[in-house]
Amino acid sequence: MTALLSIGELARRTGLPVRTIRFYSDAGVVPEAERSESGYRLYGEDALARLGLVRTLRDLGIDLATIRRVLEREVSVPDVAAAHAAAVGAQIRVLRVQKAVLEAVARNGSDPQEMQRMHKLAQLSDDERKRIVAGFLDEAFDGLDMAPGFAARMRSVSPDLPEDPTPEQVDAWIELAQLVQDPEFKASIRRMSEQHAAAREAGETLAPDAGWQEAAERVSARAGAALAAGVDPASDAAAAIVDEVHPVFPGGLSRAALADRLEVGLDARAERYWQLLAVINGWPPVPTTVPAWTWFVAALRA
C-alpha cells in the first residue's frame, strides 16, 4: 500500500505553503485521502500531480472552479487552454489600448474629464466604432437618392483600430468619434449629400471621370502653388489661372455656378475625416487640398 503524505510533506515536496494546500483541499481540487487518528489530513501520491496541475493552471490565471472541472474531467485541458488564450488575447488588446490612451494623455496634458472621455472612446469594440460611423452616414444619406456605388464606397470605409495601436492612432480615433458626432459637421455633410442627390436627379454623371480628375489635378497644382506664393484670388495672376483651369471642368458650368457647386464641399472637416481614417487604418497619408480649392473658388467669384 502506498504511504499517505501529510500536508507538511506535500508542502516540502511541492514548495507550496501549507496554508495554500489547505485552501486547495478545502476548495475540493486536492481532496484528502483520509485523516490520521489525531485528525490530521493525509493525501495520496496523486495529490502531488494534482497540485502540480493546479499550480500551473493558477499561474496561467485560470479560476479554481474551472480547475476543479478539469480535474474532474468535465472539460479537457486543451479546451480550457483555448478558451483562456482567447480571454488573455482580449485582455492584452485592452491593455494595449489603455497604454496608448495613457501615452496620449501624458503627451497632450489632458485634464481628468478629457482623460475619462478618451478612455471611454478608446475602449469601444470594433463593432461599436463601426456603428458610430455607420450612424453618422445613415443621417447623412437618410431619404436621399444617392448613387448606389458612392454610398456603398462610403459605408465600406470604417475605422479599424489595430490590436496594438499607436498613441497617434488612438488620438485619431478619438478625434474622429468627436467629429462624426458634431452637429455642425453632420449638417455640412448632409448638405453635400443633398447636392449629390440633386445632381443625380438632374441626370448628371456623378462618377469621377477623366475631365473632373484632370480639373482637380490642375486646381491642386496651379491654385495650390498660387496660394503658397501668396497670390491674391482677385488679382490678374489669379484670373489667368481661372482662365486656364475653368474650361477643363466638364458640364459647361458658368464660373458662378461652378463656384456654387464646389463651395458646398469646401469643409476642411470633411477632408480631416479621411485623414483621420487613414491614420487609424494605417493607410498612406491623405494630402490637404481644401485651402487650394478655397482659393480657386474665391478666384472664380472674383
Automatic annotation (TrEMBL):
Top-level taxon of the source organism: Bacteria
InterPro entries, sorted: DNA-bd_dom_put_sf, MerR-type_HTH_dom, MerR_fam
CDD domains (UniProt xref): HTH_MerR-like (cd00592)
Keywords: DNA-binding
Pfam families (alphabetical): MerR_1
GO molecular function, one term: DNA binding
Chain ranges of the HTH merR-type domain: 4-73
PROSITE patterns noted in UniProt: HTH_MERR_2
KW Lipid biosynthesis (keyword) present: no
Protein name, as recorded: DNA-binding transcriptional MerR regulator
Native source organism of the sequence: Solirubrobacter pauli
Lineage of the species this protein comes from: Bacteria, Bacillati, Actinomycetota, Thermoleophilia, Solirubrobacterales
